[in-house]
Amino acid sequence: MQEVYEFLKKCGTYYLATEENGQPRVRPFGTVNIFDGKLYLQTGKKKDVAKQIAANPKVELCGMSGNEWLRVSATLVEDTRVEAQASMLDAYPDLKKMYQAGDGNTVVFYLKDATAVFSSFGAGPKTVKF
Predict the structure, then answer these.
(1) Torsion of CA 84, 96, 69, 60, to 10 degrees
(2) pLDDT computed for residue 72 by the predictor
(3) pLDDT tens digit string along 6-40?
(4) Half-sphere exposure at residue 32, Cβ-oriented, CA atoms within 13 angstroms
(5) How far is CA 68 from the centre of its chain?
(6) Is 0.90 topped by the overall pTM?
(7) Least crowded by CB within 10 Å, which of 32, 57, 87, 108?
(8) Which residues contact 83 (CB under 8 A, 6 or more apart)?
């Protein structure tokens, strides 16, 4: 999990894929945090992505750095604890302009049953599960 976290941080921007009515939806994301031994991401409850995750929590993340890339398949689980939200916002203080822990809009999800595959142009894939 730590290796996945570090790679996503290095990417800066990664892409989150959800599904809506059978149609894939992909958008850039930038939040990633470790809290309570789990890997988290954050968004706003009012956004379409949060509604798509609520309807189908199976997602994929993909990021690239240099000639290496990472693909993660997981189920997202909402964590309603204010402490989890606060930890994410402390890790990304610029988000505090738009979100506050416990504001009813901030939502954090942790990755459950994750399979991460690291790949590159020069080596075979490496799989990590957490």
Answers:
(1) 60
(2) 98
(3) 999 999 999 999 999 999 999 999 999 999 999 99
(4) 25
(5) 18
(6) yes
(7) 57
(8) 35, 101
